[in-house]
Write the structure tokens for this entry.
Amino acid sequence: MTATHEVAEPGPSLQLAGPPRTRLLFTGPPQGLSGSIPLVNRSDAKLKLRSIELKSQSLKGVASLPLGVTPFFAKLYPGEQANVPGMIVLDSSTPPGNHQFEISVGGTTMAAEAHVEEVVDLRMAPSQITILAGSATDFTRTFIAENAGNVDLPTGAQCETPILDSNDIVSAMVSGINDSDKSTVEAMVKGILLHWGDLHAGTLVTRRDPIVLHPGQKLAVDVHFHLPATLKPLRHYWANLQLYNATLSVDIYTTANYGRKPEHHGDKSKRKAP
């Protein structure tokens, strides 16, 4: 007696719609390419689509693996056709430009193009530091720099940014108005501008080894900070360093010894005899 095996026929499924040479287009950053997929339900039942299959020679998914089945939800009634919007997520380091791939749904395949936008995304940790400045004016801190975008990010060897007194702009505005003669609007504006100018206490200079941070790369970087001699003792200052989209907030507290040269004890041979 011979056993027989019955193979279940595949049920009806949604299919891609449109002329044979149709090319679909998805645009945006790698983390969210948006577009629409034309679908048709040729059956007499309500059908749902929960995933599509993507195939490419170069593009990769979020885990840096080749593209494959990806979630994509659609629901069409019998005989219905629709352009269903959706999103495709790629590896965040996918370079900008046009990339070719294919989309398959229900046994039908259609050519597609991904227009990947340029993404500049520099991340630094920590994003805030505090410098307690005594007699020294030079300090070094270590940061973790990460290129989370899809283009190379060259960094120069030096940056400069103004150091501001902790008195905020609103306080300076009030002081400027109070110190003016209030005779005209011009006089009050001049007083405000003079007080705003007093907030600038000098320039913070940072130096580092110049590097090019590639997409997906993460490095430890030593940054050297140099404070100007114009800062006053026992004051609080702040500065914001901007490098691409990353911002570093720097709080500076000066001690009573700021600006004083440290005492150096000379050689015993050079000391005066008692």
